[in-house]
Predict the 3D structure of the following.
Amino acid sequence: DSYYYQMVDGIRRYKGAPPLPKGSSPVTIPIAGGFEPWRSVGPEFRTHVATTLPREHAGVAGLHYADRSGRNDLELMKVAHDATQVCFYARTRQPLSPATDAQWMWLFIDADQNPGTGWEGFEFIVNRTREAGQSWLERCVGGWAWERVAPVALRAEGCELHLAIPREALGLVPGRPVALDFKWADNLQHP
């Protein structure tokens, strides 16, 4: 994958690429409400679809490779913020699997944009720990070890999911622009 992404980067530098879209103005997303407020939030982060299809292929020397762990096929993601919270949105191609499934819809957040901190560069994970329908924001304390930071308001319905995280829990300074990286992942087998 690394060589592919390097090639894409080189082609974009050679042929040119449109400028990155600007983010929407601050907006408050009521998590208890519906998903309608997300319709006007930009930009949209889209991903390749059908990446969760079962994979099966013969290998060399009689080996056979199979992977049927794909579950929620992410299609579109967005981020919004206001003075007190950062909200994340994800939409899948088909209805979401039950939230009680193992490794369900994890959100990794790199709030300091430093790849040398956290787990694989991500200081926070959301939704790894759930209790009584409550999701948690957790901070990496080294390797794959996490500590709880704050409860997270989350709503999932049909193909859509959104959640809100207090800015202060992410260490984001009030009044300053939000700059972070994030990654949604579902059903990771060996993190």
Summary: The helical segments are 2-15. The chain has one helix and eleven strands. Residues 80 and 87 are 5 Å apart (CA to CA).
